[in-house]
From TrEMBL:
GO MF annotation: an example: DNA binding
InterPro entries from the UniProt entry: GntR_C, TF_FadR/GntR_C, Tscrpt_reg_HTH_GntR, WH-like_DNA-bd_sf, WH_DNA-bd_sf
Signal peptide range: none
UniProt entry keywords in alphabetical sequence: DNA-binding, Transcription, Transcription regulation
Pfam families: FCD (PF07729), GntR (PF00392)
Protein name (Swiss-Prot/TrEMBL): GntR family transcriptional regulator
HTH gntR-type domain segment(s): 20-87
Amino acid sequence: MTRKANPLSSIKVNGPIAAHLARSVIEETLRSAILDGRLPCGIALRQQDLADLFGVSRMPVREALRQLEAQSLLNVVAHKGAVVAPLVQGDAVETYALRILLESEALRLSVPLLEAADLEQAALYIDQLETEQDYTEIGRLNRLFHMSLYSKAPNRRLLKLVEDGLNEEERFLRFNLEAMGLGKLSQEDHRAMWRAAEARDVEGSVRLLVNHLNRGVEVITRYLNSPEARNRKTS
């Protein structure tokens, strides 16, 4: 009988962790493993197993898991504990409707306060996205581009909610982008949004963002309803 591989075996811990850094190290390590797929959707993360892995008590593990739950990367399930959250699925329309509300407000607040360095960084992300072939990196760069335009919004709680939504999208794109065939359209949208932000056209940039996200939900919904997506779920 073949033993099922322990997903935690993919996580490497380099030496003892200082007590004051334990929560942040555990959080970032698990976050990276969830985003890159080493900890797949549906996997239960037991506090004692993680405490043993990191060589710490359960308290910083519990705090790290709470943070990851707040980022929508984990769900707490009865009798299973913390479980790696699913990717964007049948509720894509609702997910993007909420993203449109949150990101529109973040962009509206941020654009008047963007500095030249912020715009320069956003343009760099677009250029990198134009030539990047690795789907994991595309998902990361997409998130960073959007956050660079929202970064000056003074409402930190709003930005936290926005980044949680982008984290969710990043995970989905990493594992489905190639099958969806997205690419140039996204960059055209990004460049148009960048130009509007540079011109301090607040409402124009928001309008372009809404159109961009609406196109995204159309493509994702069509893909999720396709035979190919259903086959990927059951394979």
